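Our consortium's second objective concerns turning raw sequence data into structural hypotheses that experimental partners can test. To show how far this objective has progressed, the report includes one record in full. It was chosen at random from the queue rather than selected for favorable results. The single chain below, 262 residues long, was entered without modification.
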Amino acid sequence: MRSTLLDSKPMDEVAIDRLRCFEPEALEMHPDGYYVAYSGGKDSDVILDLVRRSGVKYTAHHNLTTCDPPEVIYHIRTQPDVEICKPEITMWALIRKNGMGPLRTRRFCCRVLKERGGSGRIVVTGVRWGESARRSKRQMVEACYQDKSRKFLHVIIDWPTNAVWEYIRTKKVPHCKLYDPPYNQKRVGCVLCPMTRDIARQMALWPKLCKAWERAIKATYDPNKVEFSTAQEYWEWWLDRDAPSRKGDDDPVLFEDNPELA
């Protein structure tokens, strides 16, 4: 991998230098060192491999959301050093508790299900500038706006997508099969995430998970609170990512995106 960033060094060596540079602070904050936030996606695969190669002390964790594609969970289970952390509440119970399904502008699910863990530690993530306009405003090292004891190190923040795939190919890093034919996913994440527009395809690929979404959303239907005649109409509105109340919010907000930077 010969792409360079600093001092004519390969990008992976720069990332490893970053990990080693901040390790003393990570160890001072917690005896286990870094907390690696592992989603099972391509960027997470790269940061996990970089952490392993760097020799720094770390623990790696995946926050189960209960609506992850089964292919992602299978891939995560092949990583022997990744702990799968089960939530205190499922997505379906969380929807009922909130009395509505998550929306682009009200993604309570991320806060409760995805952004758990790492308190009092430096969290290593795969956040990259090239993923969205919102993420282009992020810094390599950041304090968490929700938990002031937690910091983030976005170790590959300046890597373009082609560099991620180049690293995966040259280092022979295993990755989730959803990126490969016949799936050809550009990103992997929760099934029917409010941010996705790939509704029909996901409903065909994962009908049981989509049926769980339908049951949970319909359970929150209250004709006294929403302007829909039936629970089915309400469900169809939730699925319609181009509905009037959904427009104008096309910039993806992904893991730990700070709304103050919007």
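The partners drew two points from this record. The longest helix spans residues 11-29. Residues 1-6, 246-262 have pLDDT under 50 and may be disordered. Both points have been shared with the crystallography group to help prioritize constructs.
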